[in-house]
Amino acid sequence: MSKPAVWILIEQNDGVIADVSWELMGKGRELADDLGGEVAGILVGHNVKDQAKEAYYYGADKVYVIDDPTLEYYRTQAYAHAIADIAKKHKPEVFLMAATSLGRDLSGAIATPLGAGLTADCTVLEIDPETKLLHQTRPAFGGNIMATIYCQTARPQMASVRPRLLPIPERDETRTGTIIEETTSLTEADIKTRRVEFIPDEGATVNIEDAECVIAGGRGVGNAENLKVIEELAAVLGGTVGCSRPLVDAGILPHAHQVGMSGHTIRPKLYIGAGISGAIHHVVGMEGADLTIVINKDPDAALLKVADYGVVGNLFDIIPAITKEIKSRKGV
């Protein structure tokens, strides 16, 4: 009898593998160990076979490689057909993908022909020790509750996870594995879409997900003029300005700065949150920070409960004082 397998989609673009693939590989290794099974990476593209060994270094036991000219760039029909076919053939127990723009599109397209359930934007994944079912936890009802979902019958059990939510495991070049080459039956003539041209978004200048220091403001900031205190502290710390959803809804900052379930998940070395109440959909986006400092005049603010250091007081008194002190120590 074959071991239960946990599959991880290795997401790549032009041969560059997204870090979230290794985040998921680390979690997949944990789940497979709890199941007494194995971890397999799924690598789809063209001329990508040489990238497969990286998956071993992050925890994979084997890698299924589907290499074909029709898979050179992402198209839903081509990728979904290829991956669904090998999933039907090998029957994984669990299949995890990143909740990126590609993963969000592809996961449903794969789950449908497999007749599998799919839980999106999970924040916690764990194997029940008694039933061996995958417990998939995610915020629900606007972030007011955390719902745990599990699938008793259909396989694979599918879930997507936001980037930056999980740590990347240590890279171990001593690990080895097996490459299994698969094929796709779809030809170029069968695929209904073509990529005519790729135009990058030149306006996407903020990459908050990779920031090592994030200074975030919330509803308590009030307006665009008041945001200057946040911007000044971010500038002196060499950080990036973030925000909770109310500032985006008010048009004070664009969505690229939003932290949370409907924004971006971050794992900075330092997160400072000011004037943010701490709804669960924001907490999910920043709880992976190494060090969290929260400033709020409400002593009962939920965000204070997840802080390493909390300051109860007016952010317009506290943040300028911090900025002044840092400038003084830097001699600027």
Fold blueprint:
Blueprint lengths: L4 E6 L1 E2 L2 E2 L1 H17 L2 E8 L7 H5 L4 E6 L8 H15 L3 E5 L2 H14 L3 E5 L1 E4 L6 E7 L4 E5 L7 E5 L16 E5 L30 E5 L10 H10 L2 E4 L1 H5 L20 E5 L5 H7 L4 E6 L12 E4 L2 H16 L2
Parallel strand pairs: 1-4, 1-6, 4-5, 5-12, 6-11, 7-11, 13-14, 13-15, 15-16, 16-17
Antiparallel strand pairs: 2-3, 8-9, 9-10
What labels describe this entry?
2 domains; Rossmann fold; single chain; elongated; alpha/beta; 27% helix; 5-stranded parallel sheet; 8 helices; 332 residues; 7-stranded parallel sheet
What is the string of helix and strand elements? EEEHEHEHEHEEEEEEEHEHEHEEH
Describe the sheet with the most strands: 7 strands, parallel
Count of separate structural domains: 2
CATH topology of the largest domain: Rossmann fold
Structural category: alpha/beta
The Cα radius of gyration reads 22 Å
CATH superfamily of the largest domain: HUPs
Shape descriptor reads: elongated
Distance between the first and last residues' Cα: 68 Å
Overall average residue pLDDT: 93
Approximately how much beta-strand content do the residues carry? 25-35%
**How many strand segments?**
17
The CATH C-level name of the largest domain is Alpha Beta
Low-pLDDT ranges: none
Given the structure, what is the number of helices? 8
Assign the CATH architecture of the largest domain.
3-Layer(aba) Sandwich
Helix content: 25-40%
Question: Can you list the strand order of the major beta sheet?
Answer: 7-11-6-1-4-5-12
